[in-house]
Amino acid sequence: MTALSRRSFLATAAGAAALTAAGGALAGCSSGDDGKVHLELFQFKSEAIALFDTICADFNAANPDVVVTQNFQADNITALRARLVKGSIPDLITINGDYSYGALARTGIFADFTDSGLLDGVNPTMAGILNTLGTGAEGQTNGLAFADNGSGIIYNKDVFESAGVEPPTTWAELIEVCQTLQAQGINPFYWATKDSWTGAPAFSSLSGSFLTDGVAAWYGRRRVIDGRTSFRELSPVFEKMLQAYQYGNDDKAALGYNDGNQGFAQGKGAMYWHGTYAIPAIRSYNPDINLGTFATPADDKADTKVVSGVDVAFTMGKDPAHPEENQRFLKHIMSEANMSAYCAQQTAYPTLTTLRADDPALEGLQPYVDDERLATYSDHNFPQAITLNAYLQQYLFNGDLEALIQTLDTQWDKVVTRINETS
């Protein structure tokens, strides 16, 4: 998904506000000639198009006065920005909970769901992840967390069993597992880092446990450009990334993400450092692979958390044309049946506390979800103008920690200062 700078969001919001003041309606659809209310579902998950069509059809059948139609948009942030400029925000929106969501929310274009009743039964920690990214005003919640992912370490259960190792619970144990596997001629990790973003999962899952006062709290301090907070504080995170990177396949820099999924599915490594989002892709190459997951271990297992992000959230405009019909559909989509269907298909964690992920591969992370021992993604706090992924990739290739820290501090100060000046 394409992230946007704060400056772009402000310009977009200003343009939308001007159009609205001039009479432009912020609504994707309206009442049709058939007397029904027609609503647009702005949807970005290509792998879930068929499921959302079914969900819409079921809703339409049960609500004969409303017609909800899915509008799939792969590059939904860019498309949404274009719609805002035209003064036409979609009725119903699916969105990923990342920096782009937070920047949009801070412009005040999304509805506040705090008193809507739609958050009843939603895991409060999962719901709160969206708030750490940005809100329209203090105390608001501008999105409904629908499905979450977990970022830990995926492992091949059969390889672990044959090698006589167990999922580690501390960082020292993880290194011992790597050494044991390596001694048996097994690649401890299967790395594929030709695509720059593939180093970010390790960075986020390590920093989620390392920042014991909270990821969002640390980045909140770092946004104050006063020289008191530096990325040097995250040196232990970067050092562990590089340490783990040494345990694995020799061709890692030449392999892209899809190569990694295929190679891991073929048994070329024991562990794969990605979030649960990678599981369907791995299984597409080997449906019978026996997968498990465990949380990226901290030095002290009491500090270990699972980094979790809102893979899909639902939201709508601040002043929708059809609030009652929108609310009706959102209640429908947030039901146990629809959430279970989506999470089972997409190997995701449901956000309702009455539901649990039933995929065996997710069992290792489920206790952290149950106990709300969750942290948000560190990389979701970076504006697009800071090319974090490229910097992390270069660091894994050259091992120059000092250069990484200096680059991050310099680029962060420059970009965030500009954002602060325009906010």
From TrEMBL:
Secretion signal span: 1-27
UniProt entry tagged with the keyword Transferase: no
Keywords per UniProt: Signal
Positions in coiled-coil regions: none
Matching Pfam families: SBP_bac_1
Presence of the UniProt keyword NADP in the record: no
The protein's name in its UniProt record: Extracellular solute-binding protein
Taxon lineage: Bacteria, Bacillati, Actinomycetota, Actinomycetes, Actinomycetales
